[in-house]
Design brief:
10 helices; binds zinc ion; 290 residues
Length: 290
């Protein structure tokens, strides 16, 4: 008799609000996200179990924390790893709002001294600035139509782990007395970052279409063929793909607000220097705050 009705079920969490996502669900099958007809996803507050995993450094690094929290707080999400990164970022901000209220800490760099300044933004206002992703993105290069897909959360985790390792090994550099050894570790590190960027570029190619000599359209979707093409293509091809990827990844929450810098050199008559800037959200930051 395991599945008896729990009399406490009426007291379970209820959605705090509903939010749209940048992709509008266009890239998803129901095994990734079950999109409601309204295209707005219900967002619940975090449970104690969710809060706990967001404080686990290993789970944060390998993405497990974010995956669990998204799937717990936005039950329409079935497979967060296969979601697009811009959607994940938006959902994390929404979950923060649902769990801790509308105030959210944001940062921007002072245009005068580059100092990182912080401010408090409204989750609600931030969500209204969300951009939306198109159905598809095409880079036209050398007669080829290269269809590019936005980064998934799995890509972002991979990049995060590589960057973490890289930062670690660069920190270790200072302790190595031998200059040649330092140089070789530095080069090794550089190679790993380049290899990752190359891999992410290759993975983001969804298909390549061209017209053959008989006027027939040829569509290539074979992963091995696409990667082999990139290995043998002119460097301008990779560059224009990367350019598109950067533009796509910039689509998300775009909040511009007033901030102040109180660094010594920026004070004007003893008052902080006011500036207006697009702010950065650190969607995972809220977990480590308390
Ligand atoms: Zn400043």
């Amino acid at each position: 008799m395991a599945n008896t009705h729990n009399p406490l079920s009426a007291f379970y969490r209820a959605p705090k609000f509903f939010t749209a996502i940048p992709s509008g669900g266009k890239y998803y099958t129901p095994d990734i996200v079950e999109m409601p007809d309204t295209n707005d996803l219900p967002v619940f507050a975090m449970t104690s179990k969710d809060e706990l995993i967001m404080k686990n450094p290993d789970a944060l690094l390998n993405g497990e924390a974010v995956v669990q929290v998204i799937q717990s707080c936005v039950p329409n999400v079935k497979d967060a790893r296969r979601m697009l990164s811009s959607d994940i970022d938006v959902l994390l901000i929404a979950i923060q709002g649902a769990s801790y209220g509308d105030d959210i800490d944001v940062t921007a760099n002072c245009p005068k001294c580059e100092n990182q300044c912080s401010a408090v933004a409204s989750v609600d206002t931030a969500l209204t600035t969300m951009g939306s992703l198109q159905d598809s993105y095409i880079a036209e290069v050398n007669g080829l139509s290269i269809k590019i897909k936005p980064f998934t959360y799995a890509n972002t985790i991979k990049a995060g782990i590589t960057n973490f390792r890289s930062t670690r090994s660069l920190q270790a550099l200072a302790d190595i007395p031998d200059e040649m050894e330092r140089l070789s570790l530095f080069n090794e590190n550089f190679k790993q970052i380049s290899a990752l960027n190359y891999e992410l570029t290759a993975e983001s190619i969804e298909s390549i279409t061209f017209t053959d000599e008989n006027g027939e359209k040829v569509v290539v979707t074979d992963r091995a063929h696409l990667t082999e093409f990139l290995d043998n293509a002119d460097t301008s091809v990779g560059a224009s793909i990367e350019e598109q990827i950067t533009a796509i990844n910039g689509i998300g929450i775009n909040l511009e607000m007033q901030l102040e810098c109180d660094q010594e050199g920026c004070l004007e008559d003893g008052n902080p220097y006011p500036f207006s800037s697009k702010v950065n959200f650190d969607p995972v930051n809220f977990s480590t705050a308390s």
